[in-house]
Amino acid sequence: MAPSINKKRTISQANAPSLPIVRPAFPLPWISQAPLHHRSLPLRSEEFLKLAKKFNGTDQAGPDDEEDMATTTNRMPLIITEEEEEELAKHTPAGYEGTLAPAIDLVDMVLLQERFKNYPRLLQSVAFGNLAFDRNNDAVLAAILDKLWDQAANQPGIYHQQLVNDDGYSPTVEELYEISKYMLGYVKGYNHELCGEIKPGTFNAVDAQLANTIDNFKADKYKVQLKLSAREPASYRAYMWSDYYVEHAKKPGEYEAHEMYRAPQPQLAKLATTGIAKGKASSSKKLRVWRLVPDRIKRTITFVNALQKRLNEVLKADWNKPLEFPLVDVGYSNECIPRLREQASHHYSNYLMALTETLCAILPTTLQEWSSNGPYHIEQAVIYLVYKPEQSEISEIGWTKLADGYIHNGGGFSHYPAGLSNASASKTSVLIWSAAMMYVVKESAMKLNAQAEIDSEQAKTDAVTKQLEELLLEEEAVDKERDEARTALFTLCEKMSPETEMGTQFALALELTKETDRTIEKIAVYEKEFFREFELRNALELKIEKFQSDAQEVSKYHHRFMRTMHDIREFDKEGEGSGSKDLVDEIEVVEDEEVEAEEMDGVE
User: Fold this and answer.
1) What stretch of H or E contains 562?
2) Residue 555 sits in which domain range?
3) Is the pLDDT of residue 59 over 90?
4) How many domains does the chain have?
5) At what angle do helices 120-128 and 139-151 cross, to 10 degrees?
6) How far is C-alpha 329 from the chain's CA centre?
7) What is the CA radius of gyration of the chain?
8) Which of 44, 77, 92 finishes a domain?
9) I need a labelling partner for 231 at 20 to 30 A (CA). Which of 359, 381, 392, 401 fits?
10) pLDDT digit string (tens) for 425-437?
11) Is residue 43 part of a domain?
12) 311 CB-side CA count, 13 A
C-alpha cells in the first residue's frame, strides 16, 4: 500500500506523524473468545487469527470464520511451550477480562494536566493519526479500544467512526473526488430550488435506476419503489428525506411536491395509515408523513465543496494514494453500542456518512470503469467513557475538535454542532452515572494516572533531597579538607627553622592564624553572652509590661473606689443613713492598707 497523504490541518498539526507501528516480540492472540459484537471491529490478519485459535485451544481457521471463535466448542489441547507462554504474559493485556494490566495502563497515561480519564496513545491516534490503521498495528491500542467497547454497554460514551478499508486506509483522493461528484448528482435529482447551486460539470449524473440502487443498499426487507426514484417534480432520495408526524391528515391534493403521505416502501404503508410513532406512546393518533429536508441538501453541498477544496490541495501525482486522516464522525450516546448498530444499518444515522459508504460500495459494482482499493466500510469504536451528565456536551465537543470531524473543512461527516443534542444525558439513571463513576475510578487510567502523578512529584522531591544531601556531604568534605590543610600547615611551620626567611614568614602566618582562631572563639563567646543578655532583657521587658498592666488595673479600681466614697460622704451629709459613718470608717481603713501596699511596691 502506498504511503498516505497528510490533509490540511493547523500549523501545529501539519507535520505531526501518525502513530508509529508497535510490533510486540510475540504476536498477541485473544486471551478469551471474541464476542459477537466485535464483528464491527477490524478483521485481524490470518496469522493473528491462527495464533488466537492456538492460544484458545480451538481448531485453526482462516480469517473468514472469525465469527466461529465466539461459538465454537471444539477444543484441542494447548500446544504452546513454557517460553512462549512466559513471553505471551509479558505482552498480553487482560482487557478481555475487564481490566488492563497495570504495566500497560502505566505506559498509556493520560495527559496529566487535562486529567482525561483515557490513554495518550488513543488521544494521539485520534488527533494526529489514523485510529483504524493504528489499532491494526498496535496490539495495546486494540486492547484499550476493546475494553472501552465492552464497558460502553454499561455507561454513556463517545463513539468514533471512520471510512476505511480492512487495512485501515482511507479511500484515495481520486476515489473520494469521484464519490463527491456522484453525491452531487444524487442530490441533483430532486429538481429542488436549492439544487441550482450545483453547477454543470461539477457532478456526475445519477439516473433513477442508480438512485434506486443506492437507496436500497441497506434495505434488506423493505425496498424503495423505482417509480418514486423517478418521481417528478421531486424525486425521492432516501438519504435526503425523513419522516415526521402530523396531527391531522391532509387530502392527497394538499401535499406539496416534496411531501408524501405514503411510505416509500409498500411494506411500510400500514405504518403511515395507522400512524404509530416510534417511541412516542402519546403519538398514537399522529400520522406519519415523508418529506424532503432542505437542510440536508444544503449540508451535502457544503460537505462536497469543502471536501473537494481539501482534495484539490493535494498534488495530482498523489491522487492515487489514500488520505492519512480518513473522513471521520464523532458523537455522544448514552447507549453507544445500539447507536452504532443503527449507524451501521443506515437507520436514523448520519446521512452524509451513510451516503458516502453506500457510494463506496455501489460504484465499483455498477460502473465497469471504476477501480477501487476497497471494499470500504465504516470502522466503529468507542473512544471515551462519560461518567457525569455535564461531561456529555464538553466531551463530544472536545473529541470532535480533536478528530477534526466537521464538514466545513472537509475533515469529516459531523454536520451538527457537537454538544447540542445531548438531552439523553439528563434522562440517564442516577444509578448508571454512579456505576460509571465507580468504574472510571477503579478500572480506567484515572487511578493509575493520579498515582503516577504522585510518584512523579515524589521522585522530584527525592531528587531535590538527594541533591541537598550531596551538597551537605560536599560541604563536610570541604571543611575536613580545610582542617587537614591547616593542620599540615601548622606541622610544617613547627618543623621549619625559624632562622630562614620562609620559616619566619610561616611562623608569622601561623601566629596570625592562631590569633584569628582565638578572635573567632572570643566572638563566639561574646555572641553567646549577647544573646543571653538579650533574652534576659526581653524577659525583664515582659515583666515591666505586666507590672504596668497591673498598675493600670489597680488605678482603675482605685478611681472607682474613690468615687464611691465621695458618693457615700455626700449621702452622709444629707443625714439619710445612720450606718454610713461606720461604713466610711471601714472603707478608710481599707484605703490606708492599700496605700501602704502601694508604697511598699514602690520601695521594691
Assistant:
1) helix 501-573
2) 501-603
3) no
4) 2
5) 100
6) 18
7) 44
8) 92
9) 359
10) 777 888 888 888 8
11) yes
12) 25
